[in-house]
Specification:
This is Beta-1,3-galactosyl-O-glycosyl-glycoprotein beta-1,6-N-acetylglucosaminyltransferase-like. This protein is 41% helix and 14% strand. It has helices spanning 3-39, 56-60, 64-74, 77-82, 87-93, 97-103, 113-116, 130-140, 157-167, 188-203, 223-232, 250-253, 290-298, 300-309, 319-323, 386-389, 406-424, and strands at residues 120-126, 146-151, 173-175, 209-214, 217-219, 241-243, 254-259, 262-269, 280-282, 287-289, 349-351, 373-375, 378-380, 396-398. Bound molecules: 2-acetamido-2-deoxy-beta-D-glucopyranose (NAG).
């Protein structure tokens, strides 16, 4: 071969090798970009408070050593002082929304097409503890979902201002158009959710399922996991709905009045429910289809039922459970007892009631002892409850509190974010 020709062939060979490796380089870079592009959304120790000293992977596996370490850490005065965040902090930090969302690592885009095509609507009823609210919002936030926040009319002004400041940073998070003064066990608690339902229903035609929350709930599933579970329900609803226990009958048999912010039982018997609809017992928290919400807002039978419930005790425990068994309501079940659903079997909410705690060898116990502390006979979860919580199918659990056990929320939010990002790049966890 002539020297010139040989040089030419060598040049072409080098060129093609070069092009191939350039191509490979771009492919690899794109892949790492995608992974890196998600990695910056991972919660790291840099954005954790004093909880970052904990070993979350040990805690999630229920390891005694890791749990013991949590106990030692959380009793120190320094720790207790450092976990408090004043309401004013949120007002200051949200002056620059872009910075706030970056710093707090709010998801800036849907993590998958599947989630984008299945938006969720949330009603969040809040009255205090802004830090709990912000941690919860961050955990469930996705740009394709929509969030209505009801702040109690009698909340502290700094709480209302802080929550208003946070919501103003997101186009898809808004304050309810009509806030009410919530009364314990009274009708206004239901009205708060109803007002959010109406706002969410008219704000967007796209969302598929409705979930209501309070400030002390926290998710147990990623948004993708929720979307998949909800899609598999094929339009049915998931909430507690059972025969009314004998010791609760008085709550719906007598007329009640709200006097100075307290619900009082009168001696007047109530009339039967409209159309003699069978009343069922359940809880305040529901996971329901868009069609269910449409019925609540437009079905005249339900309108009459709502009016009938206004003077009962703790109507949130009965109203949703009853609507869930009305013929023709989308996603509902027949009123027959065979379709009764307990809180343990519904997806809506996992709660540990103090009187149901115990050991597995006792037939009266429903779940193991609370590892945190109790508020009004409900467990406020501790780090030691996490392993048990994550064994369940429920979408959300109640109660969590950043002030009494911040480690439980810290490890849970870190676990969920890591899982969501891993799902997004197609890794298995
Ligand atoms: C945390 O717990 C995991 C799981 O048991 C263990 O493998 C790891 O060594 C622990 N890490 C530290 C820093 O103790």
């Amino acid at each position: 071969m002539q020297p010139l020709k040989r040089g030419c062939v060598q040049f072409l060979l080098k060129l093609s090798v070069g092009l191939v490796s350039l191509g490979t380089f771009y492919l690899v870079r794109q892949r790492t970009d995608r992974t890196l592009g998600y990695r910056w959304l991972e919660y790291t120790e840099d954005d954790g408070g004093p909880e970052k000293a904990c070993n979350c992977s040990g805690i999630l596996q229920g390891e005694q050593e890791a749990l013991q370490q949590v106990k030692l850490l959380t009793i120190t005065r320094d720790f207790q002082k450092n976990i408090q965040i004043p309401d004013e902090y949120y007002i200051y930090e949200t002056q620059d929304c872009r910075k706030f969302k970056l710093k707090r690592k709010y998801l800036p885009f849907p993590l998958s097409k599947e989630e984008e095509d299945f938006p969720l609507a949330y009603s969040m009823v809040i009255h205090h503890k802004v830090q709990n609210f912000e941690r919860l919002l961050r955990a469930i936030y996705a740009p394709q979902n929509i969030y209505c926040v009801h702040v109690d009319k009698k909340a502290k002004p700094s709480v209302t201002a802080a929550i208003q400041a946070i919501t103003s940073c997101f186009p898809n998070v808004f304050l309810v158009s009509q806030a009410v003064e919530v009364v314990y066990a009274g009708w206004p608690r239901v009205q708060a959710d109803l007002n959010c339902m109406a706002d969410l229903y008219s704000a967007s035609k796209k969302w598929k399922y409705f979930i209501n929350l309070c400030g002390q709930d926290f998710p147990l599933k990623t948004n993708l996991e929720m979307v998949r579970m909800l899609r598999s329900m094929r339009g049915s609803n998931s909430l507690e709905s059972e025969t009314v226990p004998a010791d609760k009958k008085w709550r719906i048999s007598y007329v009640h009045e709200i006097i100075n912010g307290d619900v009082k039982t009168t001696k007047t018997l109530k009339n039967p429910a409209p159309f003699n609809l069978p009343i069922k017992s359940g809880g305040a928290y529901i996971v329901v289809s868009r069609g269910f919400v449409r019925s609540v807002l437009e079905d005249t039978r339900i309108e009459m039922l709502i009016n009938w419930f206004k003077d009962t005790y703790s109507p949130d425990e009965f109203l949703w459970a009853t609507i869930q068994r009305i013929p023709g309501v989308p996603g509902s079940k027949w009123p027959n007892r065979k379709y009764d659903q307990t809180d343990i079997n519904a997806l809506a909410r996992l709660v540990k009631w103090e009187n149901h705690e115990g050991s597995q060898d006792s037939e009266s116990a429903v779940y193991p002892k609370c590892q945190g502390n109790h508020v009004r006979a409900v467990c406020v979860y501790g780090a030691g409850d996490l392993q048990w919580l994550l064994e369940h199918l429920h979408l959300f659990a109640n109660k969590f509190d950043t002030e009494t056990d911040p480690v439980a929320i810290y490890c849970l939010e870190k676990y969920l974010r890591h899982k969501a990002l891993a799902e997004a790049v197609g890794e298995s966890v």
